[in-house]
Amino acid sequence: MKYVLTGSLGNISKPLAERLIAAGHSVTIISSKADKVAQIEAIGAKAAIGSVEDIAFLTATFTGADAVYTMVPPNFGSGNWKKYIAGIGENYAAAIQDSGVKNIVNLSSMGAHMADGCGPVSGLFFVEKALNTLSDVNVKHLRPGFFYPNFLANIGMIKHMGIIGGNYGEGTKLVIVHTDDIAEVAAEELLSLSFTGKSVRYIASDEKTTGEVAFILGNAIGKPALPWINFKDEDTIAGMTQAGLPLEIAENYAEMGAAMRSGEMASDYSAHRPEVFGKIKFEAFAQMFAAIYAQS
Of 44, 123, 155, 231, which alpha carbon lies 20 to 30 A from 220's? Predict the structure, then answer.
């Protein structure tokens, strides 16, 4: 079969491509960067260099594919992050319709049931909505939890302040996932193409409270007393902007953290919790975290 993947050689798209190629299929990877061509070809895929903002490019690239994997790449300079995310979803929908592709696996997120109040994830609500308007197209929306690698952003805080924290709430249970487990599920869906209509699949590798996250990471780096500190939303925004993030991006992240704290982000997940979790538990990720921490 012929697959087209968005996401360049990211933490999900690359291992996903490797799985599809290992199964004997043709894979084209979309990237906005021409310097990625050699790396894409090195894993046995074809490179399509262009922008996800270019509907004509997407249409030409999607044409002839048996299935497409869609994701919205980050863009911290968009000015209106939610609107940008929603717009890429509309671009995908237009290109899918014009190209005639019939099967889509779309990377969404836990919390995408929220049209508002969940930061960038509320943008993904509108991506799902755009894809769900397509007739005679099968769409599987993957809704993973909070990515393990996101905790790497806390290394500086741990080193300089001796704490780890966020505005997610004290004792909040986090639904967390390794990106390789997401790739595994995406490959399973693309290889089988057994889904019909429009449907959602949640993905989780583990569930840990904020305190457990601090304890596990602290033990891994030799700081067993590492505390989780809950921040106010305004302090979260201030910290992010001081670190160089644009205000609009910081506000979106803080809004998502508040949705985690209230439990609303996980409410639909809780009603459709997967029976089988991913293979990579948080304790295993903590060892990788410790290695990066030691080198930073």
Answer: 231
Q: What are phi and psi of 104, to 5 degrees?
A: -130, 130
Domain interval for residue 45: 2-144+178-203
H runs (alpha helix) in the chain: 13-22, 37-42, 55-62, 81-99, 120-132, 155-161, 179-192, 210-220, 233-242, 247-262, 267-271, 282-295
Asked if residues 196 and 146 have their Cβ atoms less than 8 Å apart, the reply is no
In this structure, is residue 166 part of a structural domain?
no
What is the pairing mode between strands 173-177 and 198-203?
Answer: unpaired
Residue where the block lists tokens 């967390």: 176
Distance separating alpha carbons of residues 211 and 172, to the nearest angstrom? 8
Cα–Cα distance measured from residue 4 to residue 17, given in angstroms and rounded to the nearest whole number: 9
Q: State the pLDDT confidence band at 229, using cuts at 50, 70 and 90.
A: very high
Report the amino acid identity of residue 60.
A
Over the stretch 38-62, which tens digit does the pLDDT of each residue have?
A: 999 999 999 999 999 999 999 999 9
Least Cα distance to 30 among 6, 52, 54, 12 occurs for 6
What backbone phi and psi angles, to 5 degrees, belong to 70?
A: -110, 140
Residue type, 151: F
Asked if residue 224 lies in contact with residue 215, where contact means CB atoms within 8 angstroms, the answer is yes
